[in-house]
Amino acid sequence: MPKTISNIAVVGGIPAPIGGVTTFIRRVVRKEKNVGFLFDLYPSEHKSVPSEFSGKYIYSDKKIITLLKLFFFCLAKKDIIIHFNFSTPRALLLMLLLPKRGACWALTLHHGDLGNYIKPWIKWVLMHRVDIALALNDRHCKWYSRYVVKDKIILSSSYVQPSLPQPKLEYVRLLDMMFAGYKNILVCSGYPREIYNHALAINLMRDRPNDVLFCCLYGEGAIRKDLVTMAEELKNVIILDSLSEDEFNYLLSRADLYLRLNSEDSFGIAIADAINFGVNVLATDVCPRYPGAQLMPASIDAASLLALVDDSLMVKGDLAYSKERFNEFTYVEVLSRCI
Fold first, then answer.
1. pLDDT tens digits for 87-99?
2. Is residue 210 located within the same domain as residue 152?
């Protein structure tokens, strides 16, 4: 029987805090009208279910309850597509434990580096439980091809364009005060972890006293305290924590430059959003980037980064631009494969 409207269940989570996977899911359930169920596995104090989502939202602040509901859902539902969204292969333990009764299981792993060695049970899940593997780039395709039949792999996307941000008036006024007196507004974002290289962005501002950097952090990470301490030493660095999607995107739309200094990445939703907002982007070339991003090596030193930022803000210089082609995410091919 064909999979029709409302016959897709998404497994993952929605903000807060905002992040790449959660932002993708929030936008997918807002845009894709054939999503009938959303299982939110990630407890947090604040949740924002898109008003456009007319399906059933399954969530409990006790994760075990949501997992039990998902277990019985998988036990009962056969004619449905279940789309699992995780960051790394370790999370595939859930797919090992859940019952599979004829439903089509689609998987997206959003982390940039999926690793070289995986445990035997992960290999078994990929070989026997995954019906559709949604790869985000060629590197993902190669990784999946070691364990998943080629016909089951789809080169997909993790990008859905945002709605026009609608932050609260108090937040807009607060940003206006923070912007006052500075020439250029720079933004970086991500988890407080080494691979995001936030420290490099913060140190950059020592040589840019007339500009201001907003370092937007979300989630937990080993270097959070170090980054906060570094920022406190500089008047022109502001740490913002766990912004909502509307808050972050409004800030991003007001920026002059978005910095993505990751040493590992899979795509970078904020890069695409910034470009669609008309904001310049400097990003490392560790993975395919949204067209229009200005590229630099991940090993860039502080002096070279300073020069590239100058060039980008002045819209001059010999900058390399991403010419990758990206389509927005859609379930069209998934639906066709699961009929």
1. 889 999 999 999 9
2. no
